[in-house]
Amino acid sequence: MAEEIKNVNAKVDELEAAAKKYASKDTVISIGGYEFTPAKLMVAFTIVSSSLGGLYGTFEIYKDYMGMKKKIAEYVSPDLSEFDKRLAVIEQNSSKTADYTRDIKTDLKNDIRRNESVTEQIERSVKQAQRENDQDLKNMQGTLRAQLDRTRDDMEKLKRDTDSKIDKLNSSVDAKIQKAIDNPLANK
């Protein structure tokens, strides 16, 4: 019977040590000489993953920019000698020249407007993507906070349950000890 009591006491001690180690609000994890709580680790993970996502997006934009820059640098303007010959013919015929110049001017304006429109669309798209990324980040932070709260609640419940079981076990052990002490046959 004494051996059973020792085993029960040893188990109780192990449970109390585990409760202190894992269910404590003061749990600290040391990484690389720095000390973190589980909450700090979750926040750090969120910040790192968001930063990496932002860096990846920035890398993709930079890669596209460098590709466009290379294409522009390698651009070779077409041979315009035929165009010059045509201009000479047009100069000879002044009425045709004015019409042709007007047409070129109109086409250039349209091209410029199209380019401006495309540029504005790209800017709107980038701004929209930034807003969506910001919103996603806020949503992710909210979700992580909710998960952290649930985890904290679960840990508190586990601590209460463990404390309750330990109290019941202590009461049971105390009752058995008292019963053994009160037994008149045990004294003979």
Low-confidence stretches: none
What is the tally of helical segments? 4
Strand order within the widest beta sheet? 1-2
SSE string, helix = H, strand = E? HEEHHH
Distance between the termini: 17 Å
Give the fraction of residues assigned to helices: over 70%
Count of DSSP strands: 2
Whole-angstrom Rg: 39 Å
The largest pleated sheet is described as:
2 strands, antiparallel
Beta-strand content: under 5%
Choose one word for the global shape: rod-shaped
Give the averaged pLDDT, no decimals. 82
Count of distinct structural domains: 1
Briefly note the structural class of the backbone.
mainly alpha
Describe this protein's structure.
It is a single chain. This protein has 188 residues and is mainly α. It has one domain. Helix content is 84%, strand content 3%. It contains four helices and two strands. The chain has a two-stranded antiparallel sheet with strand order 1-2. Strand 1 and strand 2 form a beta hairpin. Helix 1 packs antiparallel against helix 4 and helix 2 runs antiparallel to helix 4. The longest helix has 89 residues. The radius of gyration is 39 Å and the shape is rod-shaped. The mean pLDDT is 82.
